[in-house]
C-alpha cells in the first residue's frame, strides 16, 4: 500500500498489553430485574429455551440408546455430539441477536440451532411467520408463533434423523444444520472450519452496509487450528475502514475431544489471551462464566453494541462444560475425574436460573417440574413426527449439488454507478488480437462494472496487479472497497470467499499458484464444495477462485504443478481451464455470473499469448461445451491449457510427415466435462490420447 511509508524505526522500548477482563460479571437475576435490564417474562423465556435444548439433547440420547423407539423397527443413525451443560451459551447469545444477525456453528450445534430459530421466531411478525411455516398445518395451535416453534423443532429433529423435511432435506444431519431464513449459516463438523466462513460473512455485511453482526461460535479445540489465526488476523486488518462486525465466541468446555485446553495442549490458562496477538485492543477480549445465562446475555449485549459501532472484531471466551462425553458412547472416565464432573454439574445453568426464578417468586418447584414436563412432551411429540417423516429418495441424490441459476439478468440496482477513473481500453492489434492476460483483465473490468457485488482480492492483486500483472489498474478504477490485498493466508482467502458469497457478494479470489491451494484444501474440499449440497441446496455460492498452473518457467516443484485433477474430484465445484485468449474472457465472465463455486485455472505460459477476443459485455461461453481445435480422421487427442499448443504443432507434423490426421479436442471445462463431443470424436477416429502436464501417478 503505497500510501503508507514503512520507515526504519528501532528506538528502544517495550511492548505493553492491556489487561483482559476475567469473570467480571457478578449480578443476579434480582439485580438485573431491579435495574430494568431484564423482565421476569424475558427470564422465563431464557429458562424455557434452555429446557427445550436439554430435552432435545436427552431425546437424542434416548433415540441412540433405544430408550425411545418412535416406531417398531426404528434404527438411529448419525452423530451424537451433545450440548448438555452448555445451554446458557446458545440461549444467552441468541436472546440478544436480531433475526437477521448471522451465526456459524459447530459439530456440537443442536443447541445453537434450536436457540437461533426460537429467538428469531419470537421476533417475527405474522407475514414472516406465515412464510416460515409454509405448508405446516396451524389449525391446532393457539397462534402462528406457537406453530412456528413446533415446526422449527420438527425441522431440526428431522434433519438430525436424515429426513427430507429436515432443515437441509436430510443432507446435513445433526452436525450440519443450517437455516438461512433465520440467519443460521450452518454448523460445521470440521473443528474450526467455520472461522473463515464467518469472517467472510462479516466482510460482506460491512461492504453491503447491513445493520447486522456475525457470531462465529467455536469450541476451544478450534483455537489451536491454523485457520483460527488466519481468520482472526484477517478480521483485524487495519485496511478495513472500521472493524468487521464479528465476534469469535469460544465455548471452552475444557476438552477438544479428550485433550485439556489448560495444562495439556496449550501453554496458556485462558484462550482469551490470544486476542492480544491481533490488534492493540486485544480484540476487546474477555473471559466470562458460561454456566450463567445472564452472564452470557450481558456480555453479548455489550458485544453487539460494540460491533454495530464498528469496534470489531471481538473475542469472547466462555468457560463452560459438557456434562456428557464427546459423544453419547464416550463416558468421559478416561480423561476426567468424577470429582471434576460433579463440581461442574453443581454449576448447572438450568438449575441456576430455576433457583433464581424461584427466589424471586416467579416459579415454584412444582412450576419448574411442570415447565420441564411441557418441554419433554413437546420434544417427544415432535420426535415422533420427525421419525415418521419422509426419507430422501435415491433418484434425488444429486439434487442441490449445483445451482441452476446465474446472474445473467440483473437489475439496475446492482450496476456500479461511480468509478474512480475511466476504465482502461485494452488494445487489440489490426487482426483483433489481444494478450491473454488482457483478456482476463477485460473480463474482470466488465463484470465489476456490470455488478457491484463482484469484488476481487488475493495476495498482491491491488497496487502490484498480481504476480502476472493481470489485475494491474483495477485499483485505480474501483478503489480498495472492490479490490484489495490479503495476507498470505490461502485458507482464509478461500474460506472468506465462501462466507462472502453466502451473504450476498460475488467474490473473485486469487490463489497465486495452484501449488498453494494445498494450503486451502479443507476450505476448498470440505467447505466450498460441500456447503450447498450439505445445507440442502438452499443457498448459492457465486465464488470464483482464480489460480495459475504451469511448468516451463524454471520455478521448480512448488510453483509448477498441475493439480486440477484433485479439485475435479470434489463434487460441487466447477473446474475451468481455458487455452486461448478468446476462451478465457468468455469463460471467466460465465464463471463470475455462475451461482456455483468455480476453480478458474490460467496457465502462466499463456499470459503473453495473443488471440482474437470479442468485445462487448455480453460475450460469454457456456460451460460444458468443448471446442474442436483441429479436425481430423485418424486419432483424437484430448488436451487443454498450454499443452494444446504442443499438441497442435505435433498434429501438423504428423499430418505432413506421416499422413496421420489428428483431431484435437479442447474440453475448456473439466467440470462439467463435455463427454458427448469427446465421444463423438473418438467414435469417428477410433483412437484416443489424453495429453496434459499433470503427473500420471505419484
What does this structure look like?
By secondary structure, the protein is an alpha/beta fold. It folds into three domains: 358 residues, Thiamin diphosphate (ThDP)-binding fold, Pyr/PP domains (Rossmann fold, 3-Layer(aba) Sandwich), CATH 3.40.50; 201 residues, Rossmann fold; 65 residues, Rossmann fold, CATH 3.40.50. The protein is built from 20 helices and 19 strands. The strands form four sheets. The protein has a seven-stranded mixed beta sheet with strand order 9-8-10-11-13-12-18, sandwiched between helices. The radius of gyration is 28 Å and the shape is globular.
What attributes characterize this protein structure?
single chain, 698 residues, alpha/beta, Rossmann fold, seven-stranded mixed β-sheet, six-stranded parallel β-sheet, 19 strands
Amino acid at each position: 500500500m503505497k500510501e503508507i511509508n514503512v520507515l526504519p524505526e528501532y528506538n528502544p522500548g517495550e511492548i505493553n498489553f492491556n489487561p483482559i477482563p476475567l469473570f467480571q460479571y457478578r449480578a443476579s437475576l434480582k439485580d438485573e430485574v431491579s435495574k430494568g435490564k431484564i423482565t421476569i417474562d424475558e427470564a422465563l423465556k431464557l429458562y424455557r429455551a434452555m429446557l427445550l435444548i436439554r430435552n432435545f439433547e436427552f431425546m437424542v440420547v434416548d433415540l441412540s440408546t433405544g430408550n425411545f423407539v418412535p416406531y417398531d423397527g426404528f434404527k438411529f443413525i448419525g452423530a451424537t455430539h451433545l450440548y448438555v451443560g452448555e445451554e446458557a451459551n446458545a440461549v444467552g447469545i441468541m436472546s440478544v441477536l436480531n433475526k437477521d444477525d448471522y451465526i456459524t456453528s459447530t459439530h456440537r450445534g443442536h443447541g445453537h440451532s434450536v436457540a437461533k430459530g426460537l429467538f428469531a421466531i419470537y421476533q417475527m411478525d405474522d407475514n414472516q411467520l406465515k412464510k416460515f411455516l409454509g405448508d405446516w398445518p396451524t389449525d391446532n395451535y393457539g397462534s402462528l408463533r406457537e406453530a412456528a416453534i413446533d415446526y422449527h423443532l420438527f425441522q431440526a429433529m428431522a434433519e438430525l434423523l436424515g429426513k427430507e423435511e429436515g432443515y437441509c432435506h436430510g443432507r446435513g444431519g445433526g452436525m450440519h444444520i443450517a437455516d438461512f431464513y433465520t440467519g443460521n449459516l450452518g454448523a460445521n463438523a470440521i473443528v474450526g472450519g467455520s472461522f473463515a466462513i464467518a469472517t467472510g460473512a462479516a466482510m460482506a455485511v460491512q461492504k453491503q452496509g447491513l445493520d447486522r453482526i456475525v457470531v462465529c461460535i467455536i469450541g476451544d479445540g478450534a483455537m489451536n487450528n491454523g485457520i483460527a489465526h488466519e481468520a482472526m488476523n484477517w478480521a483485524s486488518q487495519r485496511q478495513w475502514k472500521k472493524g468487521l462486525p464479528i465476534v469469535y465466541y469460544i465455548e471452552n468446555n475444557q476438552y477438544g475431544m479428550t485433550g485439556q485446553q489448560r495444562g495439556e495442549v496449550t501453554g496458556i490458562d485462558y484462550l482469551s489471551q490470544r486476542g492480544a496477538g491481533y490488534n492493540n485492543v486485544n480484540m476487546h477480549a474477555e473471559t466470562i462464566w458460561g454456566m450463567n445465562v445472564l452472564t452470557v446475555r450481558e456480555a453479548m449485549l455489550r458485544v453487539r453494541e460494540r460491533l454495530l459501532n464498528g469496534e470489531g472484531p471481538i473475542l469472547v471466551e466462555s468457560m463452560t462444560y459438557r456434562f456428557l462425553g464427546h459423544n453419547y458412547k464416550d463416558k468421559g472416565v478416561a480423561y476426567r475425574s468424577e470429582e471434576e464432573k460433579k463440581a461442574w454439574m453443581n454449576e448447572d445453568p438450568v438449575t441456576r436460573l430455576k433457583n433464581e426464578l424461584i427466589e424471586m417468586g416467579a416459579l415454584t418447584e412444582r412450576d419448574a417440574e411442570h415447565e420441564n414436563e411441557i418441554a419433554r412432551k413437546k420434544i417427544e411429540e415432535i420426535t415422533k413426527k420427525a421419525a415418521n417423516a419422509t426419507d430422501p429418495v435415491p433418484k434425488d441424490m444429486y439434487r442441490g449439488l449445483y445451482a441452476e441459476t446465474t446472474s445473467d439478468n440483473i437489475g439496475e440496482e446492482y450496476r456500479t454507478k461511480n468509478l474512480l477513473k475511466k476504465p482502461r481500453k485494452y488494445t487489440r492489434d489490426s487482426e483483433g488480437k489481444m494478450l491473454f492476460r488482457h483478456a482476463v483483465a477485460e473480463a474482470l473490468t466488465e463484470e465489476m462494472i456490470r455488478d457491484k457485488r463482484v469484488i476481487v482480492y488475493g495476495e498482491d492483486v491491488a497496487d502490484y496487479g498480481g504476480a502476472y500483472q493481470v489485475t494491474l489498474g483495477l485499483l485505480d478504477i474501483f478503489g480498495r472497497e472492490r479490490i484489495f490485498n490479503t495476507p498470505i493466508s490461502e485458507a482464509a482467502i478461500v474460506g472468506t470467499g465462501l462466507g462472502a458469497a453466502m451473504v450476498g457478494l460475488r467474490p473473485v479470489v486469487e490463489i497465486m499458484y495452484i501449488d498453494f491451494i494445498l494450503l486451502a484444501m479443507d476450505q476448498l474440499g470440505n467447505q466450498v464444495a460441500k456447503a450447498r449440497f450439505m445445507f440442502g441446496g438452499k443457498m448459492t455460492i457465486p465464488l470464483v477462485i482464480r489460480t495459475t498452473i504451469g511448468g516451463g518457467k524454471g520455478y521448480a516443484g512448488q510453483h509448477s504443478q498441475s493439480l486440477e485433477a484433485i479439485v475435479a474430484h470434489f463434487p460441487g465445484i466447477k473446474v475451468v481451464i481455458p487455452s486461448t485468449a478468446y476462451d478465457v474472457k468468455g469463460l471467466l465472465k460465465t464463471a463470475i455470473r455462475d451461482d456455483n463455486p468455480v476453480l478458474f485455472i490460467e496457465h502462466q505460459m499463456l499470459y503473453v499469448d495473443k488471440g482474437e477476443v470479442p468485445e462487448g459485455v455480453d460475450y460469454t461461453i457456456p460451460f460444458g461445451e468443448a471446442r474442436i481445435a483441429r479436425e481430423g480422421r485418424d486419432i483424437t487427442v484430448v488436451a487443454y491449457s498450454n499443452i494444446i499448443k504442443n499438441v497442435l504443432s505435433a498434429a501438423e507434423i504428423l499430418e505432413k510427415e506421416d499422413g496421420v490426421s489428428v483431431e484435437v479436442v479442447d474440453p475448456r471445462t473439466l467440470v462439467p466435462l463435455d463427454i458427448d463431443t469427446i465421444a463423438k470424436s473418438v467414435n469417428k477416429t477410433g483412437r484416443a490420447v489424453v495429453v496434459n502436464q499433470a503427473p500420471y501417478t505419484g
